[in-house]
Amino acid sequence: MRSIDGAVLDLKRLDLLATGDSVIHRLDARAKVLTTLVFIVTVVSFNRYEFTALFPFFIYPVVTASLGNLPGGYIVRKIIMVIPFAFVVGMLNPIFDRELFVRIGPLAITGGWISCASIILRTVLTVGAAFIMVGVTGFLSVCQALERLGTPRTFTVQLLFLYRYIFVLTEEGARASRARELRSCGRKGLGLASFGPLIGHLLIRTWLRAERIHMAMLARGFIGEFHSHQVSGFGWRELFYVAGWSAVFVVLRMENGAQWMGRLVTGVLS
Amino acid sequence: MSHHIVEVKHLQHIYADGTVALQDVSFTIHHGESVAIIGANGAGKSTLLLHLNGYLTAHSGEIRIGDFPLTRKTLPEIRRTVGMVFQDADDQLFMPTVFDDVAFGPFNLGLPVEEVKQRVRDVLEQVGAAHLKFKPPYHLSGGEKKRVAIATVLSMSPDILVMDEPTSGLDPFARRQLMGLLRDFQHTKIFTSHDLDMVVELCPRTIVLHQGTVKADGATLEIFNDDALLAECRLEKPLSMQGCPVCGKGV
Amino acid sequence: MHMADALLSPAVGGTMWGVAAGTIAYSSMKVKKELDDSKVPLMGVLGAFIFAAQMINFTIPATGSSGHLGGGLLLAILLGPYAAFLTIASVLVVQSLFFADGGILALGCNIFNLGFFPAFIAYPFIYRKIAGSRPGRTRLSIAAMIAAVVGLQMGAFSVVLETVSSGISSLPFSTFVVLMQPIHLAIGIVEGLVTATVVSFVAAARPEILRAASESVTLGSLSLRKVLLSFLAASLLIGGIVSWFASENPDGLEWAIAKVTGSEEVTGTDEGVHTMLASLQEKIAFLPDYSFKKDVATASEGEAKVGAVKEDTTGRLGTSVAGGVGALLSLALAFVIGIALRRRQQFA
Q1: Which of A195, A202, A209, A215 to mutate to test the interface with C (most CBs of C within 10 A)?
Q2: CA distances from residue C32 to A147, B87, C40, C82 in whole angstroms, order as listed
Q3: Is residue C97 part of a domain?
Q4: Is C208 within 8 Å of B94 when comparing Cβ atoms?
Q5: How confident is the model over C2-28, as a mean pLDDT?
Q6: Measured between alpha carbons, how far is A221 from B107 in angstroms, rounded to an integer?
Q7: Residue numbers of the domain that contains C328
Q8: 77-116 in B: which are within 8 Å (CB) of A?
Q9: Residue of A nearest to C46 (CA)
């Protein structure tokens, strides 16, 4: 279990990355959201025994992260944290799928192991792409992109409000939980008897805060509509970005790039 | 054209649970005045402030802002005239970036985009927060938050500035900065505060609330020299007016 | 019970995206129509509250393990179905983007599984029906418990359906159901207990909050028939699209079904669970050193097929070596390009 403070710091760090300035950061958010979607769909569209053909797809997250100047170690650490979950999910495949898939000399590998490895690889790719997208775009821009791609205003406003107050409320929650911990004299667990009131108090304070925010909104003339001005930035550069990457993904989906490269090399060597 | 007076007559407010928050409050504030409203916890300060821009409605009594009585019809105009800065800046800064937050009010007034941008630039300059324009509020310090919160209100060009506990939670330097900023404003100013030293420095006039009534209304220095009044209203002489605790000499 | 991108096929993920997007659009319209603009900040901070509350763990009674609040039912009780659905969806969006809980493609599934059932089934048709307008403590607890259990059972079953029809996991349908449902029965009971505790606390300390919540909820337009009909329509749509994809693509649903029946045959020929369990360890070993049933079975059917199998595996061997080498190479190439780009950026 991650600590509350740790999670908030992590969130802030990813959020701060998006304030950077690079070729990728300057692209319209819609281009990055769409490209990431195409990427994820292509990656998961492979059949479950595909393993090697997934490797060439690393080109996308690696290039984006490099152009966006994201700290590689940080992104890798974030992805590694997710791998155990992927392993738990894929672990059952070797048990249920015991058919021989490939034999390399004395080695016989079952389909289950291949598909398990494939699941882990898919996780690394899709999770990595999502983190990197947030890191080079920022939540605010992602929301604006979603809105301009047709998401209802009510929902994007909700996303922005939620995101804004995560920082306030997680701190409040962390304070309450720390105060309880300090008075529980080393006993570890938090029983339901004290959890209920703790969360209840937090809920009531949250409610009162919502009322104050509403007051602050009314005081500044809020009448139920959110106004925003956005400059359209979807130009040729963005079109080229989306189309270019999509073309790469489609080619890599049709042709096993790893296979091709491997043949080239083994062919040259023999 | 009025002199932008705030006029409160026999204001009474009773909460839903039966608590009488304001019993009978009357006062008049003139254009350009800087007035402090002080009192113990629960004296009714916040309730009073919430009436001034119509968030709460009076059970009886009347409020006039400028030329208008406060009614449902005049509410939008009055909310523009009375700029209210809340105690907790986190309640006031709800938009994703400083720019959006400062622009929130002007957009609601229906101003064109260019005009809004100009206003945002101007008021951020005025409060010394121009460099924070594109930052999200959760990356700001307490003092920065407070200044931006003031900017969000100034951008609506209010005539009257109402602030609830402006200096609470600020470090000494940020407090000093903020007080300098407030001193420069030409608006009619109404503050509530427990920071009595700030009151001495910024407000020539003070209104003392006690249990929902006006206990005193007059020159700040006179009020703070009335020991019996202060004791009755659970207040204390500001530190700057007390004798020196080390050498024992008076001011 | 977050679904993960890695377990989804594009057909299932895409369809569920469509369903979730439609429900979000409809709920947004409904919330906007309510014309209660105080709900705007309330939904936002309550979403953030759920986020914060999920990070505080409590000890599950009678066990040593710890759990946390899910919050779907609690939100529905406080906000009503439409606003609650939007709030849950927004929490899931942030979790998928910042904490990789689930994933972007799986977002549609997760919003549906964790949002639709508590907000549109468990709350209006179970919780409200049992609890009535002003429930006592016991009644409230029972209502919350049953509603939470039903909501989570439906959500868990939905996870099973989505996973099996995607065909990436080899887990047979029956095994998966037997695994998921009891676990979520336990989770549901705990969720119900926690929801009831929090709601009773608020009811005692600030009754006006709950009163405001239950009054602002307009259930008039939400009839069971309407919900069930639209649910049926959605399932038909999902079923249609998924099976169409499955017939186009043998790795999909049919493949999964064939797999399920196939593994049953295996236990049959092995004469009982006993032998299966005995050889389980051997079988999940990375390098099993016995010849596979497939080879034995096909061998008895004739020379030609043996040849085919042999060719098949040796053919795979050839492609595998090249593939493996190429995979490593492409990975290395990607990182070399990355480092080069980084260098160039730094000098630029």
Answers
A1: A195
A2: 16, 30, 9, 10
A3: yes
A4: no
A5: 88
A6: 9
A7: 295-348
A8: 79-80, 82-84, 86, 88, 90-92, 94-97, 100, 103-105, 107-109, 113, 116
A9: A206
CATH number of B6-88+159-241: 3.40.50.300
C50 with C198, same domain: the answer is yes
The domain limits of chain B are: 6-88+159-241
> Do the Cβ atoms of C41 and B16 come within 8 Å?
no
Burial class (CB in 10 A: 0-12, 13-18, 19+), C328: middle
Name every chain B residue with its beta carbon within 8 A of the beta carbon of C208: 16
pLDDT in tens, A95-122: 777 777 777 667 777 888 888 888 889 8
Q: Give yes or no: residues C315 and C228 share one domain.
A: no
Chains linked to C by 3 or more Cβ pairs within 8 Å: A, B
Query: Has residue C280 been placed in a domain?
Result: no
Nearest of C253, C268, C260, C266 to residue C294 by alpha carbon: C266
**Beta strand B188-192 with B34-38: parallel, antiparallel or unpaired?**
parallel
Nearest to A99 by CA among C309, C323, C175: C309
- Percent of chain C clearing pLDDT 90 (strictly above): 16
Q: Which residues in C lie closer than 8 A to residue A44 (C-beta atoms)? A: 5-6, 8-10, 13, 105, 168
Q: How far is CA C47 from the centre of its chain?
A: 20
Interface TM-score (ipTM) > 0.95: no
Task: Note whether C163 and C48 are same-domain residues.
Answer: yes
Tens-digit pLDDT string for chain B (251 aa) = 456 579 999 999 988 778 888 999 999 999 889 999 999 988 889 889 989 988 888 888 889 988 888 888 888 888 888 999 998 899 999 888 899 999 999 988 888 889 999 999 999 998 989 999 888 888 899 889 999 999 999 998 898 999 999 998 889 998 998 999 999 888 899 999 999 999 999 999 999 999 889 999 999 999 999 999 999 988 888 888 887 777 766 55
As for how many domains chain C has, the answer is 2
Q: Is residue C257 situated within a structural domain? A: no
In sequence order, what are the residues at sequence separation of 6 or more whose Cβ sits closer than 8 angstroms to the Cβ of residue B52?
A: B6, B63, B65, B82, B84, B160, B162, B190
Single out the residue in C249, C280, C306 at which a domain terminates: C249
Alpha-carbon torsion (A170, A172, A175, A181), positive or negative: negative
Shortest Cα–Cα distance, C90 to chain A (Å): 5
Cβ of C208 under 8 Å from any chain B Cβ? Answer: yes
DSSP state of C61: T
